[in-house]
Design goal:
mainly beta; six-stranded antiparallel beta sheet; globular; three-stranded antiparallel beta sheet; Jelly Rolls
Amino acid sequence: MLKKYESCIGITLFKFRKICIEIWYFPSHYEITPHKHPRENIEVLYIFGSAVFYRISPETNEKQSAKMNFIPRFLTVPAGWIHGFRVSKFPLIAINFAKFIDGDATSASEDIILT
């Protein structure tokens, strides 16, 4: 199933009950607005590209940053954590592994709250 969010394109690879796996393409120089996904715990596997990622703990308000540079890497985004990223001159491709804590799984592009 093809999904779109702003200029980004996603494809649902697997969805069953509380699990949803999607692959996403983010164009060069794309920057996503800070947001959160209140109903899902996410593991993101960055598989290609370069980006600066951050997440903010809702309990401590501590900001954690990470830079992705063409080396596949997992990042965890617990439900409700504010996060975002900025893509460099190379597009970014990532796989989103989501486990929903409330209700059936949907796309990350549908379970998004801008902050």
